[in-house]
Amino acid sequence: MEIFILAFFALGYLVLGGADIGVGMALPYLGRTAAERREVIAAIAPFFLGNEVWLVATAGVLAGLFPELEGELLSGNHTLVVVLVLAWAVRDMGLWLRGREPGARWQAFWDGAIVAGSWGLALSWGALLSHVLVGIQGPFAVLPAAVVAALFATHGLAFAALRLRGTLRERAAVLSGGAGEARTYALTAAVLLAVGVLAGLRLPLHPGTSGSVLVPLILTLMPLLAAAQAWVWWMFRHRVTGPSYL
User: pLDDT tens digit string along 201-215?
Assistant: First the structure.
């Protein structure tokens, strides 16, 4: 049961969080002007904080149910984890701060932070997954990390095509064959799930001793999290029509 719980949160983050990471990576391509970039950001604005809950939950499950594995992942990839967290912070700072001032330089700076943070997240996850899957670290991890990052970007483009309209949708759907963005999103989601499952099979998944206390509590919260996520997706199911609160 502990393994199921970890897979639920980790795979959920890869699919859901991977979409907003990919949109951030593709921001310069999708949004050619400040107004267009603002509309592209509106495509992920209702979702990115909720998506990050899945990552926080994954970290909590690791610490509570798999303390030995958490220690191995952190100690063996300390620098990579630090880079990942910094990229996460930079990306979120860009999302929150770009709209706080009207100046073009201010917005361009934080747009750059969104792009840099998104690429940092994608490459960090790619390097971490490649290390788990094939044991590669250092400079040799660049190629598999880039492959995973490209997968994130494709996933994000498909998500953007589902959310945007007009010219922005056409740009986002460049890899989807016109109206095939739903098919592309499903395909990239399936590949991300496969990568996550393969990585999980390579990990020493030995639960700790606190499962008898934590598992019932987590199982109670999981349907609530899934229901909240479904409600957000339903409330914001329509395509973006203008800038968001960000």
Answer: 888 887 766 666 788
